[in-house]
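Backbones bend. To wit:
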Amino acid sequence: MSAARALAGGAAPLLLQLLRDPARGAALSLAEWDLLLRQAASARLEASLHGLLDEHGVAGTIPAQVRRQLDWAGVHAERHARAVRFEVAQIGAALAASGVPLILLKGGAYAMAGLAAARGRLFSDIDILVPKDSLAQVEAALMLHGWSTVAQDTYDQRYYRTWMHELPPMKHARRASVIDVHHAILPETARLRPDPARLRACAVSLPAPAAPGQAPLQVLAPADMVLHSAVHLFYDGEFDHGLRDLLDLHRLLASLGATPGFWEALPLRAAELELGRPLFYALRYCARLLHTPVPEAVLAAARPAGPGAPLLALMDSLFLRALLPNHRSCADRGSAAARFLLYIRGNWLRMPPLLLTRHLFHKAFISPRKD
């Protein structure tokens, strides 16, 4: 399947068709469902698919065999959601005495804020944002409560602590839960460097934790949450689960877009944080692939931050392949090359040439020998 065909509703992958129109599930054959579930598994969207069908009231119209499999995915998602709430409470307790504001990012934020994007959303770690000058204090507090940095070589420790926007991942000794402690949303070496102080200043407080002795929880402001999701997808370089991350954006835009003033504020906030380009890509590919209802005025406001026509044609050919499920039924001859080129691009945007060369050389020829 070519990237161009993915834009045509009838030729798009089955998973994409169902994400656009959940009611279509009632008309699918068992063979089509078999393929669709394989596509969903490759994108880590089985639990999200369960929630989507249930939300639209069509779960009872699909074959019983399919429903059983999706119900199991739903059970797993519920168990995951309980684990997330427990781990967030433990992090809050660990940081309570420090006085450092606890700002949740991405999946943890969606879950604790009760957003639609959290339904069926599975993730492997909890991301938090703290001031850079509090990193040592936060790391020490988490270590006292059982978390420690994952064993890495000296290069990896330096890579994270000198150049990146986060500490090395921290893993709990008993529960194996993982925390990513961020002080910014892009690396120190990235070409774009949105001011994290502006993000923290506009963070929104969630209702106070039920248990005493826990740090109050915050999430990014609605527009900032969308912008961070866009940065994470379009400036990271990893697209194994690109459709899952695009669905996050789709759900955020669909739910937050009902808030008065959201759409008008979004491009203005992107310009303020110098994130106009990732917002442009987010709106363009949400609208094209998932038919997200983005107002025309907002698309027009975001367009000046996008690339020129020749580069945009190239990015379309890459993103419209890489954002499809990473499954052979959704691939064409250019899919693997598209993901590889976007991986190189993501690293290029995050590091200057000399550092990038050293980093790729280390990962290709030195790190594997130590595994």
User: Anything to note?
Assistant: The longest strand covers residues 178-182. The first helix runs from residue 14 to 20. The beta strands are 102-105, 126-129, 147-149, 170-172, 178-182, 204-205, 217-219. DSSP finds 16 helices and seven strands in the chain.
